[in-house]
Task: structure prediction
Amino acid sequence: MISPARTRSTVLAALALAVACAVTGCSSPSTSNNTSELSTTPPASSSPDAATFFPDVEEVGVTPSGTNLFDFAVTISSPYDTPEQYADGWRVVAPDGTVLGEHTLSHDHANEQPFTRTQAGVEIPEGITEVTIEGRDQANGYGGTTVSVELPGR
Result:
């Protein structure tokens, strides 16, 4: 029989390990096929408010521009934008997680919130009728509010 003191000690050790993993960002290996090496989790040492870590996709306009080609107008909000930390892009993702297109932003938009940028000629394979747009922060990776849109004409 295990003593209550030993049980309590085991439970406390397991709890300490769980807290340590939560604080340091322990996780299992990713099986994602994302092309980004950036994290998608806010740094553990920072505030839990995701609004300071990730941009939000607010609106997406999609226009067909040729056979299996689409133009995207994406409106992003990242009110924390500064030259030190800013929204540096967005991507178009298929329902199965395949990245179909990426758009890179090379500077902050601190004086322009929210802002809209376009990307023309994103090739979307036949059979895909909906995609999701995800925003990226140059320090923390992909995260924040996403928008899923149906592709016109599909």
Residues 4-24 form the longest helix (21 residues). Residues 1-48 have pLDDT under 50 and may be disordered. Residues 1 and 7 are 10 Å apart (CA to CA). The beta strands are 56-66, 69-77, 87-93, 99-104, 115-123, 130-137, 141-142, 147-150.
